[in-house]
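Lab channel / #folding
Pinned by the channel admin:
"Please post every new chain as: sequence first, then the structure tokens as a reply. Keep commentary short and put observations after the output so the thread stays searchable."

First post following the new format, from NK:
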Amino acid sequence: MKAKATERTYLDRAQRAEEPDAHDQWNSVARRETPAQRLDRNYAEILQEVRVAQTGVQLLLAFLLTVAFTPRFATLSQFERRVYVGALVLGAAANALLIAPAAFHRLVFRRRLKRQLVLASSRFALFGLTLLMLSISSALLLILSVTVGSASAVWFTAGALGWFALWWYVVPLWSRGRHSGSHRL
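Reply from TO:
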């Protein structure tokens, strides 16, 4: 009895997830786009965004992976080594999340889970960008610590982190809030 109730709840949730929402209705009128076409377009847009970020994270990760094998690495302070490890781990985690949409797609391929794929991929991209921002900031802290000293490095890095946060999060969220009542493109 409990299994049937659980199955019914799951089916009810799945059916509600497939029902057209306000965005589907707007896209139908404005773009003449079906919900399936919208999901396909949304996934393609996410992949395009992720491609941009992947290049950055992969270059950063390649740089960080080579640093440990340079003669100068042995002269790093304990603080600098910890920053290096943090940057490396954050870069690897960002890389994992920015590649996750491809792996997720492969595992749900032909299962009619496009809506779930788009939602998960959007979250992967957002969290991956956050980890990328932190990894870049950590790498910047490491490089600046070596070149100008730890005290100055912390200030410069804080400024850079604020700069990233401003353009990657604050301005888009401000714009989203400012235009939340409008449905224009």
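NK: The chain is about 85% helix and 0% strand.
TO: also worth noting, The mean pLDDT is 87.
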